Amino acid sequence: MATSSLKEFSFKELKMATGNFSSDAWLGDGDSCKVYKGWMDETTLAPSTSGDGMVVAIKEYPNKEPHFELWQNYNAKLSNFSLARLGPSSEEASVSTVIAGTFGYIAPECITTGDLYLKSDVYGFGVVLLELLMGLRVNDQEHPCGEQNLVDWLKQILSQETKLKTIMDAQMEGQYPSEAALQAAQLSLRCLELDPLSRPSMKEVMEVLKEIEALGSHLHAEVK
């Protein structure tokens, strides 16, 4: 990515975007950082108040100014994470690596064999999508026994439309057509395939998300 396409943010700006790293903006912890939800103006990328503009993710590292990642129109902008490494671009190829990531989001093959595939991160996206659909965290020890791991608990339910309606986040009721919810659930299932080669590419994921967005837009148009 060309340097000119990156925008630098001061620590002061990131504090403003997250409400001074408020506990309400906290999303979770990684191995070496905390992740917060912040808000930026869509046009100027200036920090804004909660609920105004577009959502961004901000990583806060101990004794360091936070690193910043921004997504808009499915394009991520990352800088200075010191995590990248060169590897083969083939979907079938893998590289061996030391496991690094947040428990619950790491692909099974990375844990069992230490192999990292092109689609290993697709698994993590599937987990996040599942959390969004259910309004629950992937690991929650306060849940009843058998429901503490979101992926294991829900994989059998996601493919059944009638049961899906009973476990969807209640706060989303009336905001989506049932077809869109089912498509999102099926996409999550595909991303969570144990075999990395059976998972969709992020390009395929983006295409499905656009279809889901179109269904949602159609619903809002009918309501108007």
From TrEMBL:
One of its GO terms (molecular function) is protein kinase activity. InterPro entries: Kinase-like_dom_sf, Plant_Ser_Thr_Prot_Kinase, Prot_kinase_dom. It holds the Pfam family Pkinase. Gene3D superfamilies: Transferase(Phosphotransferase) domain 1. SUPFAM superfamilies: Protein kinase-like (PK-like) (SSF56112). Residues 1-223 form the Protein kinase domain. Transmembrane segments: none annotated. Coiled coil: none annotated. This is Protein kinase domain-containing protein. It comes from Acer saccharum. The lineage of its organism: Eukaryota, Viridiplantae, Streptophyta, Embryophyta, Tracheophyta.
